[in-house]
Amino acid sequence: MSVESFRCLETDLSASYAKVEDINNQICALLKVSLPISGVEFTGTGLESYEQRTGEYWVFVSPGMKFITIKHRDFHPIRNYAFPQRIESARTYEMVVKVDAIPQPIDSASMMSAMEQKLLEMEQRLGELISNQNAQQAPTPQPNQVIPPSQPLIKNNPSQFKLLKTLNCKGVQTISYSPDGRKFAAGRRDKIIEIRDANTYKCLKKLYVGCPVYNLAYSPDGTKIASADNEIIEIWDVNTGNCLKTWRADMGYCASFAWSPDGKRIVSTTNNEAVNIWDVNTGRLLRKLQLKNTVEELLFSPDGSNIVIIASDIIKLDANTFELLHINDEQYISTNGCGSYSPDGSKITAGNYTDEIKIWDANTLRCIQTLKGHSSSYEKKKPIDVGFVFYSPDGTKIMSSIRDCNIKIWDANKGECLQTLVDHTEYVISGSWSPDGRKFVSASYDETIKIWGCE
């Protein structure tokens, strides 16, 4: 299945007449999906309410939702389709879905024979890889060198990560460890931030915020949490649960934000191509920079002296004066929330819409390495904001997930893939390292949080 078209039906009042409300008592939008087959499932709408009509489905969607997943047992699913326009309350939209061919009955005996042959070939190939593993030398990265995908570590390697715990968390969108590693926070679509004990995984506190939480981050001292939805940024006191500051993201939705290392400022970007620096204590806008391209990611350098902007090019600014220090116009496009500085500030890494991970020299902004290994089922021409790329706290590893269900652990120096973790069943959307680097947490559209640990 694939989406042929999407549009707003300006004169169609069906959504207003239906008056279906979500859990926040907002009138839902109505998505009329043209799809002439039965047995279709729709998820990710915030309500999971739909009904089949003649030649189409009526799917009710909570206002502000960004994605929808369409599944059928006989066809390849459409996973996390990004709505090309904002979903508004009581509006009606039309989506035309194309089904290439009706599946034909499968001969079970032929299918089993083909599967057995495929398994045999896979076993033979795996044996060759294991036998040759010790004989292979890791390539020395050269400037702009592309490192091909590597195999996971062999079993019983002492640095291998294992799944420790799976937690159900409906509507989870973002996750972050506290700076002391004792807690982690998870932001949900239903306007709740859960704070959990990092060892027992018990929920210690819930913050009932004013908007769906698509981004969150602890302040460097761990006393505050910044959260953002499409339009609002809020600062929360972790201990009392009180909202300290609220401001709107400059007439557009907040695509990305980052704390300064001293915790006194937040830099944010919006879809109207503006970059803002805010005073956390007063909520006052300190500086504003208007760009010509939509900003996908913002990063403070570890020492707080620079801000890096990743858009259609890469820009480095002085964090105090906004003076342009360097620009690389290699036409690199990053996914939202998908990049980080190395702890020593010497490198920058981010993922892109072609499922690659780029590593740049932080001083020159020159690309020094490209890692390949993720494989997205999205069409390459459809940018989807899913995933993350983070250096470990000691800078020796990179954790990544780019538009697929897998998490990869890389050797940050050699560019080798050390391990691939495949336990999530939907796209992985957020992740965070523990401060000691021996654990990390991940959140997925399968509505689970997974905690991973190193032996």
What's the arrangement of strands in the largest beta sheet? Answer: 1-8-2-5-4
Task: Count the beta strands.
Answer: 37
* Biggest sheet architecture: 5 strands, mixed
- CATH H-level homologous superfamily name of the largest domain: YVTN repeat-like/Quinoprotein amine dehydrogenase
CATH class category label of the largest domain: Mainly Beta
Query: Any guess at the CATH architecture of the largest domain?
Result: 7 Propeller
The tally of structural domains comes to: 2
User: Can you tell me the overall shape?
Assistant: globular
**Strand content range:** over 45%
What class, by secondary structure content? mainly beta
**CATH fold assignment of the largest domain:** Methylamine Dehydrogenase, Chain H
Regions with little confidence, pLDDT below 50 for 5+ residues = 103-113, 134-158, 378-384
N-to-C CA distance = 42 Å
Provide a descriptive summary of the structure in words.
A hairpin with a 5-residue loop joins strand 17 (232-237) and strand 18 (243-248). By secondary structure, the protein is mostly beta strands. The protein has a five-stranded mixed β-sheet. The chain has a five-stranded mixed β-sheet with strand order 9-30-29-28-27, with no helix packed on it. A four-stranded antiparallel β-sheet has the order 10-37-36-35, with no helix packed on it. It is globular. It contains two helices and 37 strands.
